[in-house]
Amino acid sequence: xxxxxxxxxxxxxxxxxxxxxxxxxxxxxxxxxxxxxxxxxxxxxxxxxxxxxxxxxxxxxxxxxxxxxxxxxxxxxxxxxxxxxxxxxxxxxxxxxxxxxxxxxxxxxxxxxxxxxxxxxxxxxxxxxxxxxxxxxxxxxxxxxxxxxxxxxxxxxxxxxxxxxxxxxxxxxxxxxxxxxxxxxxxxxxxxxxxxxxxxxxxxxxxxxxxxxxxxxxxxxxxxxxxxxxxxxxxxxxxxxxxxxxxxxxxxxxxxxxxxxxxxxxxxxxxxxxxxxxxxxxxxxxxxxxxxxxxxxxxxxxxxxxxxxxxxxxxxxxxxxxxxxxxxxxxxxxxxxxxxxxxxxxxxxxxxxxxxxxxxxxxxxxxxxxxxxxxxxxxxxxxxxxxxxxxxxxxxxxxxxxxxxxxxxxxxxxxxxxxxxxxxxxxxxxxxxxxxxxxxxxxxxxxxxxxxxxxxxxxxxxxxxxxxxxxxxxxxxxxxxxxxxxxxxxxxxxxxxxxxxxxxxxxxxxxxxxxxxxxxxxxxxxxxxxxxxxxxxxxxxxxxxxxxxxxxxxxxxxxxxxxxxxxxxxxxxxxxxxxxxxxxxxxxxxxxxxxxxxxx
Length: 600
Known about the structure:
The protein contains 24 helices and six strands. With 600 residues, the protein is mainly α. It folds into two domains: 5-308, no CATH class; 374-593, Rossmann fold. Helix 18 (476-486) links the parallel strand 5 and strand 6 (497-500). The two termini are 51 Å apart.
């Protein structure tokens, strides 16, 4: 006999009340991360670590330092835990109850873990089924976590968890209800899919190996140091083991605000998913970093209750911005049919006083964005030796001019300031251009992080396309890596796209060497560094940047040696320089125009 509506309502209320009670007394619930047994095992592990590392402070101070557990962020964790205890029953338990099922961990505990009537199954069958459900659970948690980082609207809610400035075991509960519902629904779907696959290919599902009512695999994972993931205790695994299991240190890195750590180690139990999605980061040694959001405003929540409602405001802003873009397209179509109004014609006709961001005020940039200047070029130069005849800032001179010329040809495009610090070799011992005084270098990772932060800044302001253009060979790898990191997936709701425009630099694509050979120059004369091409470009743009050309350098210099020159710069001229610059700009223009049109 089917249940009456009143019985269903009472059943859901009972689930909600049980969830509320479960949150309040979580230390006595095996499915909760702070179950007393997990806390005890964590303290045991910490004591072993303490004895091994032999710090100078007492054990209790080592475990519970005041600067962490009395930190304002930690106090937010404590208060937010009770806010969520009051809301879980209504916002989490009831919706999941209507789905007719429930899930592990911080969500609702399953009433039963087997489907159908029990039958006799072998040990290996039970073990395999238990592991299958563990994999389904773990992948669901990973994939929703991945989406929460990659989908802008979901990230607004996931910021709640990443706003923690210190980590305590209660930080795990610092999650938006939206995060819980999305993850909970994904776990339900993945576990149902796993059961369906088992039924399809094997037969009726067996019981699982359970300890205190939960999957034994999850129980053991919680038992062996899970709570250290949200703590100040650094515990890493050997590299080979970290390739399979997510260590506490790997999850602490996930909370880092350092650019190199963004969107890394999103797995819960197994690190296989991170490896598969390219988000795995295994630390070789203990690293120093801060926690929080992106390093700008580490914690945008000034009170614990703000974590409940602020993300909805941020998400609505993103949605409304999206709606505005759609209406803008519709309005543009109508204008094409009906003709522009006086006001719209004025907006569309606005031209900023300069195409270079650094020459504009912020109000002029905003007006330019409103007028459709939504593309932006991020040029990279460098400060490196260019032989005894040419200034160190050669690349900066050339790429600033070329970017401005390209922006003018593209239309509705601005140019960011030149990135003048780029990789130029190792410092100690010095390699590459660092063997010559005046050269400045940074690491590949730092350069990549600078580009990513620059692109994110521009996208935040409303630019929808970012183009990386580098005038030096040492910038190409970092630009590609940064563009790859910023590239969204099919699920992304943001129209912004980031591209490396490599055809600008490489002679195979910009045609510079072929052009010079047509004019009768040999490959030895053309050279590859501080030779005819780049010397001519600087002569065309800044004659003072080339000094004593004939006397200081002449003849074919095949190796960097003591001069830093490969080629014959004495054959350079301003006329050749203009030709070389045009080839670079036109190659970049063609590549950009060949890119797919931006989606809505």
